[in-house]
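User: Some background: our group keeps a shared notebook of sequences we're curious about, and every so often someone picks one and asks for a predicted structure to add to the entry. Today it's my turn. The entry only has the sequence so far, pasted here. Could you supply the structure so I can complete it?
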Amino acid sequence: MAAFLWPFSQVMAEERVQGRRSLVLENDKARLVLDIAGGSIPEFRFNDSELNPLNWGRRNPGDQPGSMGHFLCCDRWGPPSDAEGKNGMPYHGESVKVVWSVLQDTETTAAGIHARMAADLPLAGLAVDRSVTLAASSPFFVVSETITNNNKLGRIFNIVQHPTIGPPFLDENCAVDSNGRRGFAQGGLMPNPEQPEFLWPSAITKGGKRVLMRRMTDSEEPSVTSFVIDEDLGWVIASNGKRGLLFGYAWKRSDYPWFNHWWKLKDGKPHARGLEFGSTGLHQPFPVLVKKREIFGQQLFEHLDSGKNITKSYACFLAKIPDDFAGVSKVVIDGESLVVTERVGKRPRTIKIATGGLIR
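Assistant: Of course. Here's the predicted structure to add to the notebook entry:
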């Protein structure tokens, strides 16, 4: 399995983006925005285009924490228990409910533009230290997040990356491909919430209808669905040939063994599509996770001892594609390139995205 390397570079000055405190990292190809109040990533696009796949959520002026585009779920994915909720624990944890700190201890290298930010999660007793590096001359960035348990006792936790794509990139022509495998729909009853089982890209709608999820062409919304990753390199890619754009993520299965998916229609049109990946695939409070323990042989939570930390990472990228691009069948790391292979044809096209040496 390829190792992820995290070189450091100069942090850009804090700016106001649509009225909000933000860090803006920009090279000659792409622009990346990090929101400080809540830690979301609300924008990643080519410099010569306004088309932003992460155009989801309301970017309100001001500095109130909120969730937009890609946000972090930590220390949990989904609801708290009733008792935890009464004590103030929010849905998906505290990461988007706090203002992140901008850390300035950075240095310059030829690798790219680097920013570092951190969040304290007071109820969870956890701290998140995030490093972001945009490659020097490529629409490619990497994120490394170190989670530290500041409690006097060990505890279980989960971390799920929550990217959501929206219009105009998201429309009926936008296809989503992933190497997720065995899956199930949320909402099943204990002790077997994973039944019935299906294989990506199949899913079941809230009305019980089986659908294929590559494109949002069905009038019914699927339930939130979760799939195990069974290869060392996990990936999910959204591509829209009519818009000429591909947007995706890659990560180590050892960091994030689950791919979680959902979509939302508005007036019958694609409105939102979640491309989540994380340490759990069951959208339930911790008492339920502890009772179930694992699904398809994959554990549903992690344990972090007192004073210990764990680091998890992922990469995100853009590419320009032809209007007849058919979607993605495979993603591999080859030297200093991420190679994306088209899904159909005797001679499928490949796209090489320079990683700037940030992953190998």
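Suggested note for the entry: The chain has one domain: 14-354. The domain at 14-354 is CATH 2.70.98.10 (Beta-galactosidase; Chain A, domain 5).
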